[in-house]
Fold this sequence. Notes:
Blueprint: E1 6-11, E2 15-23, H1 29-39, E3 44-51, E4 56-64, H2 68-76, E5 86-100, H3 104-117, E6 124-127, E7 132-137, H4 141-151
Antiparallel strand pairs: 1-5, 2-4, 2-5, 3-4, 5-7, 6-7
Amino acid sequence: MERLKIGGLKQSLELCQFDLIGLDSSEEIASKVSKLLLSQKINMEFLTFYSQRNNYHQLTFCISQDKFSATSEILKKEGLLPIGWEINSREQVGIITIFPHQFAIMILGLIISSWAAQSIPIYGIATSLSAISFVTDYQLIDKAAKVIQDLFQMPEDHAPIKPEIRYLQSDIVEKD
């Protein structure tokens, strides 16, 4: 059987994940948290917001692992989150992003079932027109990438994209 083609594979550096879960609120939780992290120069590398039918909402985001403690402290400050919202967090996660040309639903299903067979957890999924991103254990990210490479046909001479540097926010403004 011919393997499905994908356009490539990208891995993240080590991250941590926060899930904020709570009842419907008049406050714009995603905007509030985003602005707060921005004010502390903490970059979000993954962000999803899910509104559930039972009026519960979930905001999930991933940031650099080295910002875990600072972000935990920020989120625990009294009055930041609406009453009744809970914070769940997970350290040492990574993101694998693939670029399917076609058959995104089929590819998604194959990855989910193949990772389950290999005991590779999935803590979050986000899709767009051109990419599917999976949050998993950082210690298993190379194994997860290998499973994907074995499942799908990659472009010739393709190697997974692994970042070697992390971009940070700065107060310095340079003029020409």
